[in-house]
Amino acid sequence: MSLNVGVDTSSEPAYGKPISDLMENVTLKNYTFFGKLKHVEQYTQFSNKPEEQEGNYLVVSVVPEEEAETKFELLGGTAGEKTLEPDDHQIVCRIRNTSQKLKITSEKEGRKTTSIYSMSGLKLEPKKN
Fold first, then answer.
1. How far is residue 88's CA from residue 110's CA, in Å, rounded to a whole number?
2. Which of 6, 51, 74, 121 is the most buried (most CB within 10 A)?
3. What's the pLDDT score for residue 91?
4. What is d(CA 124, CA 118) in angstroms, rounded to the nearest whole number?
5. Taking the model in full, what pTM does it have?
6. Pairing of strands 90-95, 82-84
7. What is the mean pLDDT of the chain?
């Protein structure tokens, strides 16, 4: 079962924001994300909840096997498990602390793979005063 996960470096915006406005020099190595997540305010296209429109956001690229059902959950987050739409290969997570983990599960025809990714290598830019 193949599941390709990486840092989204595409020119596609993430919920209306250029990825370069959200993060800087982010990489993925040995299931751990490294780099800097910028502090963002008024990110209204991420959520309609005001308390979720500010913070640090990670943009992840996920390419599962064709016709596989893929789910993801930010462990230590508040949203719970979500299903990735088949034509969507981008996950945007609001990271509140570096102890959180991203769990991605993909399943097709009885075959299943689950991977857990650490945020421990990320630096979260603080809010500017």
1. 22
2. 74
3. 92
4. 14
5. 0.92
6. unpaired
7. 91
Instruction: Reply yes or no on domain 3-124 having CATH 2.60.40.
Output: yes
Average pLDDT over residues 38-57: 93
* pLDDT surpasses 80 at 67: yes
- DSSP 3-state assignment of 81? coil
CB count within 10 Å of CB 39 equals 15
Identify whether the C-beta of residue 97 lies closer than 8 Å to the C-beta of residue 112: no
| Residue 61 confidence (pLDDT) | 93
Length of the chain: 129
Say if CB 104 and CB 41 are below 8 A apart.
no
pLDDT at 1: 64
Q: Which residue has tokens 């979500």?
A: 82
**Residue 95 pLDDT greater than 70, yes or no:** yes
Query: Beta-strand (E) ranges in 3-129?
Result: 3-7, 23-29, 32-37, 39-40, 55-64, 69-75, 82-84, 90-95, 101-108, 111-124
Q: How far apart are CA 128 and CA 54, in angstroms?
A: 12
Task: Report yes or no: 33 and 118 within 8 Å, Cβ to Cβ.
Answer: yes
